[in-house]
Amino acid sequence: MATILLIEDNELNCDMLTRRLTRKGYEVITAGDGAEGLRKATEHQPDLILMDMSLPVMDGWEATRRIRDNQRTTHIPVLALTAHALPEDRRRAFEVGCSDFETKPVHLPQLLEKIADLLEKCGK
Fold first, then answer.
1. What does residue 13 show for φ and ψ, rounded to 5 degrees?
2. Most-buried pick from 35, 38, 43, 63 (CB within 10 A)?
3. What is the pTM of this model?
4. CB 40 within 8 A of CB 71
5. Which residue intervals define the domain Response regulatory in the entry (predicted)?
6. From residue 29, how far is each of 10, 19, 40, 85, 101 by CA, in Å?
7. Which is it for the CA torsion 112, 113, 118, 122, positive or negative?
């Protein structure tokens, strides 16, 4: 079973995604801000990270940069989840090290497909 770290500050979004991902067979670990997410990524070594980009304490842009700069976490795919849907937001997500990009509100079948593709690419 693949482990997903969901870094999301909105409790309703976090609860909804956790329940749906768990039903699909994923183990889900959650964090409510970028700094906590960075700690949990290092501690738990998840198979994939779903990263909200608008987070308190440390935003998702900076948290992703730090995940990529950390030798222990650089290999973990990061899928950006954001309401920022402009082309420059997508470009910026890839520039900071995200592996893929999904806009909110999340379209679950599309998100699940992206998760499966990223996990397959890293052999999970």
1. -65, -45
2. 63
3. 0.96
4. no
5. 3-119
6. 15, 11, 8, 26, 20
7. positive
